[in-house]
Specification:
Distance between the termini: 78 Å
Low-confidence stretches: 95-99, 243-248
Strand content: 15-25%
Oligomer: single chain
Shape: elongated
Largest sheet: 8 strands, mixed
Number of strands: 19
Number of helices: 20
Length: about 600
C-alpha cells in the first residue's frame, strides 16, 4: 500500500489528548509536541499562516506524522518532555538547565525524610511522580506535613548516635512538627507506620489513613481526651477535602517493554511501549498482514522478537495482555490490575487508534481493500455462509393503523444504493398488523426479483424481533428461498439480533463496524418509510378537503395551494381573495363550501 498523503494523515488523527511527532522524508524526527486535541492542533500547522520563519521551514519539511494517545493533558506534557530529552529533535527548544519534572522522594534512611527533588538517585530511595509542577508537589507535601510529624533535618540518626546523645531537638520539635527521634523520643516502628501511610497517600490511597485517624479519634473520645479527638477530626476533614488529583506513575516500573495486539480478519496491529522510570520513551505500532489465519498469540510473539531487535531493547521484563512464549530469558507479566494494567490498557488503546486510522486511510486510498475487509468481518460476525455484498432491510410504518406502508432499502458493499430503494403500500392487510405487513412486503419484493430474474441479496434484515422475523421467513418459505437467502431480525431496545429457529439473540460489540452498518440500514429504512408515510398522510389530508369540493379539479387545488400555502389559509380566505387567484366561478364554490362548514 502506498504511503498516505499528509492531508489524509491529518484528517485521520484522533481528537483526544496526546503527543505528535513530525518526521522528514528521510524519517528523521523533526519535532515533538503535545496537544489536548491532536487533530485540531496538528491541523493548525497546515491551515494557518505562520510569521515565524522556522515554523514555515518545519511545515515544508514534514513528510510523516506519528502520534501517541494518552489519558490526560498532564500525561501528554510528561510524555512530550521525555521524548524531547530522549531524541532532541531539531525544531524543539531545549532548556539550558535541562530542567526535569519534580518527584516526591521517601529517602532510604532509618527515619526517612520526605521531600521534593528533580534528581532520581539510585540509592534505594522511593520516588513518586513525576508531577507537572512544584505547586502540586508542595500542596501534597503540605497535606502530609499537616497529617504526620516528620523530621526535616539531615542527621544520620543511627541507634548508636542517638544513644550517645549526639543530637538535640530543634525548633521543629517545640513547634509540634516533629516528635524528636533524634533524642529517641519517637520509636522507629511508629515513625515507619507514618511513612507507610504517606506512601499510600502519594499513590492516591486515602482509605488506610482515614481509617487509622478515625480509630485514633474514637480512642481519644473514649478516654475523654476531647482536645486530641478534635485535633484528629480536623486532620480527617483536611484529608477528605483534599482534591488535588495527580496522575502518579509508579517509578518502580522501569526498563520494561509493553506489547499489545488488536486484529481483524486480515491484519494484526501490534503496539510497543518502552518505559523507563515509569515514563514512556518510545511508542511504535506496526501492521502485520495475516497469511494463514495466524492467532493473536503467534503474531504477538513474532512482533515482540522483531521490535526488540529493531529498537535494540535490553529490557528483562515485558508486559502483555495474553500469554506468549518468545524463547528468551524474559520475565513475562500479564497484569490484572493497578499501574501495570493501566499501562497495558494504554498500549491497547494506541493499537486501536492506529487500526482506526488505517481503516480511514485505506477507505480513501484503497477502497477495494476496505470493502473486502469489511465484508469478511461482517461474514464472521454474523456467521454468514458468504460475504453480504448485497443487503436489504425492511421497515413497516403506520400511525394508529392509518396509511400503512413499508420501505425496503438496499446496501451494496456496505454503502446505500438509493436508486434501488423501494416503497410499498400495504394491500392485503386491514388495520395495524406489523407481522402480516412484513410477510406481504417481503413476499412481494422477492417474488418480483424472481420474476424479473434479478440477483437476490445475500442478507435480509427485518426491523423487529422474533415476530417480524418469523413473518419474513414465512414469505421466503412460500417462495422456496429458505437457505438461499439469510434473514435476521434486529430488535431496537438492546440491538438484539435474532436468527430463525434460535430463541437466544446475538449481541455484537457496540463499537463494531458490523453493528454500525446494520444500524445504518435500519435507520435508513425507518427514515425512508417515515418519509413515504408522511407523504401519504399529507395527500390523504388534501384529498378529504379540496378534492371533495364539487366542480374543483386538481389544477385549481394546485393554484390555491401555491398562493395560500395551506388548506387552513384557503378555508379562512375572503371571497375577494379567492376570486383574485382562481376566478369568480371556482372561488364561489370554494368559499361556499367552507362557509357551509362554519354554519
Amino acid at each position: 500500500m502506498q504511503k498516505p498523503s499528509l492531508d489524509i494523515q491529518v484528517r485521520t488523527l484522533p481528537t483526544g489528548p496526546g503527543v505528535y511527532q513530525y518526521y522528514d522524508k528521510d524519517d528523521k524526527l523533526l519535532y515533538v509536541g503535545k496537544a489536548k486535541n491532536l487533530k485540531k492542533r496538528v491541523t493548525s500547522y497546515f491551515t494557518k499562516s505562520h510569521d515565524n520563519y522556522k515554523t514555515k521551514v518545519l511545515v515544508k519539511k514534514i513528510n510523516t506524522i506519528k502520534h501517541i494517545v494518552v489519558e490526560t493533558e498532564t500525561d501528554a506534557l510528561l510524555l512530550e518532555n521525555n521524548l524531547i530529552k530522549k531524541h532532541q529533535p531539531r525544531f524543539n527548544v531545549m532548556l539550558k538547565d535541562d530542567k526535569t519534572y519534580p518527584w516526591i522522594c521517601i529517602k532510604k534512611e532509618r527515619f526517612p525524610r520526605v521531600f521534593p527533588t528533580r534528581n532520581l538517585i539510585k540509592d534505594g530511595s522511593e520516588y513518586f511522580g513525576p508531577y507537572t509542577n512544584f505547586k502540586t508537589v508542595n500542596t501534597l507535601l503540605d497535606l502530609i506535613k499537616g497529617l504526620y510529624q516528620l523530621r526535616t533535618c539531615n542527621y544520620d540518626l543511627s541507634q548508636q548516635k542517638i544513644e550517645s546523645g549526639k543530637f538535640k531537638v530543634c525548633l521543629e520539635y517545640h513547634l509540634g512538627n516533629c516528635k524528636g527521634p533524634c533524642e529517641g523520643l519517637q520509636e522507629e516502628k511508629e515513625y515507619h507506620q507514618n511513612i507507610e501511610a504517606i506512601r499510600e497517600i502519594v499513590k492516591g490511597n486515602f482509605k488506610d489513613s482515614l481509617n487509622r485517624f478515625r480509630k485514633q479519634m474514637a480512642d481519644h473520645a473514649e478516654k475523654m481526651e476531647f482536645e486530641d479527638a478534635q485535633r484528629i477530626k480536623e486532620k480527617i476533614e483536611v484529608l477528605e477535602k483534599y482534591q488535588a488529583k495527580s496522575t502518579v506513575v509508579n517509578p518502580k516500573i522501569s526498563n520494561v517493554d509493553v506489547f499489545s495486539i488488536i486484529s481483524d480478519e486480515s491484519y494484526g496491529y501490534v503496539n510497543f511501549l518502552q518505559l523507563s522510570y515509569g515514563a514512556i520513551i518510545r511508542s511504535h505500532t506496526t501492521e502485520i498482514k495475516k497469511k494463514l489465519e495466524e492467532t493473536d498469540k503467534e503474531l504477538l510473539e513474532l512482533a515482540i522478537i522483531e521490535l526488540r531487535q529493531r529498537f535494540g531493547s535490553s529490557s528483562k521484563e515485558i508486559y502483555v495482555p495474553i500469554k506468549v512464549d518468545v524463547g528468551e530469558d524474559l520475565k513475562i507479566t500479564i497484569p490484572q490490575l493497578g499501574d501495570k494494567k493501566k499501562i497495558v490498557d494504554l498500549s491497547i488503546r494506541n493499537a486501536k487508534y492506529y487500526r482506526q486510522e488505517r481503516f480511514k486511510q485505506i477507505k480513501i486510498i484503497d477502497p477495494d481493500r476496505h470493502v473486502k475487509r469489511l465484508m469478511a468481518q461482517m461474514k464472521k460476525d454474523l456467521r454468514l455462509p458468504e460475504e453480504p455484498k448485497h443487503i436489504e432491510c425492511f421497515d413497516n410504518s403506520n400511525i394508529q393503523g392509518t396509511n400503512p406502508v413499508a420501505a425496503c432499502v438496499v446496501f451494496k458493499n456496505g454503502k446505500p444504493s438509493k436508486k434501488e430503494y423501494r416503497k410499498f403500500n400495504i394491500k392485503t392487510v386491514e388495520g395495524p398488523n406489523d407481522f402480516a405487513s412484513m410477510e406481504e412486503v417481503v413476499y412481494r419484493r422477492y417474488k418480483r426479483l424472481l420474476d424479473e430474474e434479478q440477483p437476490l441479496p445475500q442478507l435480509v434484515i427485518v426491523d423487529g424481533g422474533k415476530g417480524q422475523l418469523s413473518s419474513g421467513l414465512k414469505a421466503l418459505d412460500d417462495l422456496n428461498l429458505r437457505g438461499k437467502i439469510t434473514i435476521i431480525g434486529i430488535a431496537k431496545r438492546l440491538e438484539e439480533i435474532y436468527y430463525p429457529g434460535d430463541s437466544i439473540p446475538l449481541y455484537l460489540d457496540k463499537k463494531s463496524e458490523t453493528l454500525k452498518i446494520i444500524q445504518h440500514l435500519r435507520n435508513e429504512a425507518h427514515r425512508f418509510g417515515i418519509t413515504f408515510h408522511r407523504q401519504k398522510r399529507s395527500k390523504a389530508a388534501l384529498d378529504t378537503e379540496l378534492d371533495t369540493i364539487p366542480g374543483i379539479g386538481e389544477k385549481t387545488v394546485i393554484e390555491l395551494l401555491k398562493h395560500f400555502r395551506s388548506v387552513k389559509r384557503i378555508s379562512r380566505a375572503t371571497k375577494k381573495e379567492l376570486i383574485e387567484v382562481v376566478g369568480e366561478s371556482r372561488a364561489t364554490k370554494v368559499y361556499n363550501y367552507y362557509l357551509s362548514k362554519k354554519e
